[in-house]
Amino acid sequence: MRTLPLALWHSGSDRQLYTDARRQSLVTHGHLRAQLCCAFYVLWARELLHGADEGWDSAAGKLRALAGDDSTASRELKFILADSHRRSACGSGYVLNSLWSARIALEERNYIAVVRRAIAFGNDTDTTACIAGGLAGVRDGLASIPEHWQTSLRGREIYGPLLKGLLAARGAA
C-alpha cells in the first residue's frame, strides 16, 4: 500500500519502475511474491494514470514481459495472476489477497463505492481500502474524493504540498 507514490512520481521506464517497486518492497516484504505484487500494483496504477479504463490486463502483460526469462518469477506471476484468487479475496491484508480484493473493489465505477466495497471485505480494512482507494483516486481523479473526506485527514500540512506538487507536475493543478 505504500508503493503508490512511486507510481505517481516515477518518470522512468516501466522496467525502472518494476525494479524500483521490487526494491521498495524489500523493506518489509522480502519474498519474491510480495515484490512482484508491488511491481504489479505500480504498473497497474501507471496504466490507470495513462487513461486505461481497467488497466489490469495491460499491466499483467507488461509484468510478464519484464519478468522475461526469469523462470522463478514467471512461475510466481502465473500464480499471482491466476483468476482463481478472485474466489478467495477477503481483504486479509496478505499482499496477494490485498491485490485481488482491490481488483474486485475496482469493479465499482466511482471512488466512494470502491472504498466502501473494499471496507466491506472486513479483516484488514485499512490496507484494502488504501490500495483500492489509491487506484480509484488515480482512475477517477481528485475531484472524485469527497471534500469532507479530504479535509478530515490528519497530516494535511504534510500531504497537501506533496499533492499540490504532484498535480502541478502532471499538469492537473
Describe the structure.
The chain has helices spanning 4-9, 14-25, 32-49, 56-67, 71-80, 95-105, 111-120, 125-140, 147-151, 156-169. The two termini are 24 Å apart. The model has no long low-confidence stretch (mean pLDDT 95). The protein has a domain at 1-81. It contains 10 helices and no strands.
Spatial shape = globular
Number of helices: 10
Fraction of residues in H or I helices: 55-70%
Subunit arrangement of the protein: single chain
Classify the secondary structure makeup into a structural class.
mainly alpha
Portion in strands:
under 5%
Which consecutive residue ranges, at least 5 long each, have pLDDT under 50? none
DSSP strand count:
0
The major sheet is characterized as: none
Report the radius of gyration as a whole number of Å. 16 Å
Report the span from N to C terminus: 24 Å
List SSEs in N-to-C order: HHHHHHHHHH
Mean pLDDT level: 95
